[in-house]
Every structure is written in structure tokens, then in C-alpha cells.
Amino acid sequence: MVALKFVPLAALLLGLIVLVSCNDSDxxxxxxxxxxxxxxxxxxKPGEKPDADEGEEGEExxxxxxxxxxxxxxxxxxxxxxxxxxxxxDTSGQMPAKFHSAKTGGGAQEKWVVTADPTAxxxxxxxxxxxxxxxxxxxxxxxxDEGSFQDLDVSVKFKAVSGSIDRAGGLVFRLKDPNNxxxxxxxxxxxxxxxxxxxxxxxxxxxGANLKVTSGEWHELRVEATGNKITCYYDGSKKxxxxxxxxxxxxxxxxxxxxxxxxxxxxxxxxxK
Length: 273
Ligand SMILES: [Ca+2]
Description:
This protein has 273 residues and is of the alpha+beta class. Helices cover 17% and strands 42% of the residues. The chain has an 8-stranded antiparallel sheet, with no helix packed on it. Strands 2, 4, 5, 7, 12, 13, 14 and 16 form an 8-stranded antiparallel sheet that branches.
């Protein structure tokens, strides 16, 4: 009799214990998750966010590319022909002569202007991409109008000034139009140097190297392309050697940034090989 009386009481107690422990574990699950979830998404910028730059393999970009204007044809340059641009005779606050601007991807209009910089490799001027639209898949381009180049040696100095989504500077070559080109770029938020082809507005990385990219200092990007062989240097050191069959014909050269990168460039030089 006594035992029987205890059965419902024991069951009740057991039920209460289960209920309390369930509540506890719910709270335990919720409490640490909320702040860590927030911290994670905050920490995801810039290194771990699902950024287009994070896709090491495969294509990136919208299935239907943003429309771009066709490029005006530029005469293909013969071996030994050289062009150099120091922006020092261009007007501050305006686009540099012998260039036009364009954009791959979405977001606001790119803005390239000549500006004075006391640290310029050649003084007084540099050319700067100054728009800070944070659209991630957005690549402002500054394209040189005078020639197209097949086998080439092209270099530029760049200084990563600011950017929270991205802080990068790049060199474009064998460009057919703003949706089709090769690009090698250095990223000061990710500390890497990567080589991509962009085909119909979609970007694929096919080579790269990890290296320290400091902001606020000048660095040199340089590419040698001969046939399908592409060699990329960073501050004079060979960092990438790759082969690729995508763009074999002559194309234009240019400068590149991404998202909200404010980047200064100077002394673009290109020589036909
Ligand atoms: Ca200059």
C-alpha cells in the first residue's frame, strides 16, 4: 500500500525533473548560441564570409551577366612596343586621358579620378578608384585605350587605401570586353594573390599564392604572358606560374578593384613581347 502510494509521487517527481532538465538544456542551447552566432557573422567579414573571393574553384557570379558595352577595337601592338602611364600630366579630379572606365558585375557606377598623392611612385599624381559601393560582386575597371597586346609584360604600382568588404588592387590583361579578361589581384584583407579568368561576367580562379599584402603602402603587380603561359610577380618576386587556354588573342590592359576598395595606382607600363 505504501509502495503504491509512492508510485504516482515518484512519477510526478521524475516528470518534474525531466521538465526542469529539459528547460535547462534549452536555455543552455540558446544562451551561448545567440552571441556566438552574432559574433560568427561579424567575424565572417572579411575572411570567412561567403564572399566571391572565397570560391577557390568553380565559377562565381550571376548566371546572367550584367550587360556591358562592346569595346572599341584598339590596334594590336608589335613586339617591343611600349606604353607607360604615370598620370602626372593629367588633370586632378578627372578621368585620365587615354583610358575609359567600365565595370564587371552589379552595384553603383565605378569612379576613377586622377588625384595628387605625396607618396606617389611618380609625383605628383596617381589614379584612384574612389567609389565605396559595398556590392560584393562588383569590379570597377579602368581600361587603356591605345593598344591591344597578345604576348606582353605589364606592371603597375598600387596602394590599398581602404575597404571593409574588400581591399584589393588588380591588373587586367587580354581584355576583350568588361565581361571577358584575365585578372591577377592582391587582397590586403585576405593576404593573397590570385589569378582568374572572367568569362561572360563569371569569374574562375585558376592559380594563386598566399602572401602578406599591406595596406597604405605601394606594391608592384607584374604579369608576363606568352602564349598560354602566365607568370605573375609581386614586388619583384615570382609568385604564380600557370597555363590557361581561355584567352589567347590580343586584348587590352587595365586596372581593377573590387566592391568598396579604394585603391591608388601609378606607373602602369606595358611592353609587347
Ligand atoms: Ca604618377
